[in-house]
Amino acid sequence: MVVRIALDVMGGDNAPEATLRGALLACAPDNPRALAPERILLVGESDAIRHKLTELGSTLEFPIQHASQVIGMAESPALALRAKPDSSIAVCVGAVKKGAAGGLVSMGNTGAVVGAATIGLGTLEGVRRPAIAVTLSLTGQPVTFLDMGANREAKPQDLLQFASMGAVYMRDCLGVAEPRVGLLNIGSEPSKGTELLKEAYPLLAAAGARLNFVGNVEGNTIFGSVADVVVTDGFTGNVVLKLLEGFSGFMLQLVMAELKAHQVAWSKEALSNVKRRVDYAEYGGALLLGVNGVVVKGHGRSDAVAVANALAVAARTVDSNVNQHIIEGLRAQSA
Amino acid sequence: MVVRIALDVMGGDNAPEATLRGALLACAPDNPRALAPERILLVGESDAIRHKLTELGSTLEFPIQHASQVIGMAESPALALRAKPDSSIAVCVGAVKKGAAGGLVSMGNTGAVVGAATIGLGTLEGVRRPAIAVTLSLTGQPVTFLDMGANREAKPQDLLQFASMGAVYMRDCLGVAEPRVGLLNIGSEPSKGTELLKEAYPLLAAAGARLNFVGNVEGNTIFGSVADVVVTDGFTGNVVLKLLEGFSGFMLQLVMAELKAHQVAWSKEALSNVKRRVDYAEYGGALLLGVNGVVVKGHGRSDAVAVANALAVAARTVDSNVNQHIIEGLRAQSA
User: Fold this and answer.
1) I need a labelling partner for A325 at 20 to 30 A (CA). Which of A131, A299, B28, B254 fits?
2) So what's the ipTM on this one?
3) Does the distance separating the beta carbons of A219 and B239 come in below 8 Å?
4) Is A186's CB within 8 Å of B242's CB?
């Protein structure tokens, strides 16, 4: 049986052009991980979708599910979800809930996607709170950070669960056999940091062989391949994510300006390689781990490549049965 | 009357060479803000200091205060301060306490400097907790971030005081007439973020004309000159500071590697300009605001330029009477 991925065609700054181009790219025969078009359920204004596909010269037979409404990027998530029950985001979530799809991908309003998915799908057995996981391959090796903002505050037990979920994802989807898990802190000793971290540390350490806990990691060491999974609360994680985004853009500008001032014939290609490495949109976006379904939230400004990557991440996460393994991992932890 | 700055000659990765070279640089006649040598009280092993000064060919007449012990960079601050009462750090703090100096500069063990200064000097009238302030001029305009790690946790009232202290510093020492104060958060609305931030926001907003509060700022906007002072709790601040440090070094490596791979004749000078912009050691280090005296903690790996900058920051902070203005600001706030 083919498990579909629902794609919110209407979500994102460049929708529906970028999302549909992304779907086409995900199915391109020269793509080594190409998906069959029937695996991608296009969700949105159906006439607009068909029209755009024709315009793009596509002859692929995607399944399409109509959704008459669109939630804007700047709308209040709670209000918009109530006012627009037939939004493309809500219809994507509904498709997963009904089993018409195993996962969904949206580049739309983050709060609306997280809210609709959390409420609509519920959490997996044993999960206290879902977490947003973002994978970056800064040093060439992927590192998954979580929670990057699903929750504002966390309890020590939540951090333990984030560690477990992140480790399962790294193992199942990114092929890291025994993922090293670090706790983002301001010092290496177990006694460092906030009360939350001081209480979480022994919980993670006590997980023993079930978790390859490597202790505290710091903001200046995470670029040195010290951990495969970096666990933090959603507030700190979101600050970190936005800071990386802002800082990388800023630094690239600075580098370009300086190279120009020194009349260095800088290579656009070289700098765009750097940009790709530090831009998480390139990695297919963020995964909402812990909900009953696979939910991938791409960056609003995703281009077609990023959309195709997000679809690939969703398909891989569905196919590798990550959610079942998360449940089993948490069961073992609480046993 | 000349107010002296006590310099911990023995502190830092490159001490005493870098600290003494820094003192000489701070007094160099071609330095537009040159200090008189009699303003810099050299604290440390006196024979070693005299020997090194001769070796460096100096004929300047610095006052010297002997300290027989040195606290290592990796020592436990609490234990080291107890075991080494005659450490160069403790003697610097003692000099400020006795009034022999108005401020101190150390590149040594951060925990020991903060601990010794907080306990030894006490807090200014009305100050609940001191805060570590770090000034960066990423975009060409200085932005002061605090607290960058003096406290692990903060109360809303602490954030209000940090805002007030940071604004006084920006006005008195960096000449920003009405410093814009932003609260580091994960969204712009007042309702965003942790309980701490949701309670702090109205406190800052209620300060009215006494504080130019511009609301919440985010990690991806702080590089766009949205605020002159960015207020956060010490845990988040320390994570941010270390992340900026790690990420800037990492990105520069990435840029260099890519330019090399594309056989671009990259200019070392251009990239070291970038490095200077993102390296807070260049700005003279961190200021411990709120203690009864001026305390500048430079980065452990400071070179002579950074030490000279730190001495200049300390002298300027002493001369502009920042601490008196902080007291007056807090008095007005609680009136």
Assistant:
1) A299
2) 0.86
3) yes
4) yes
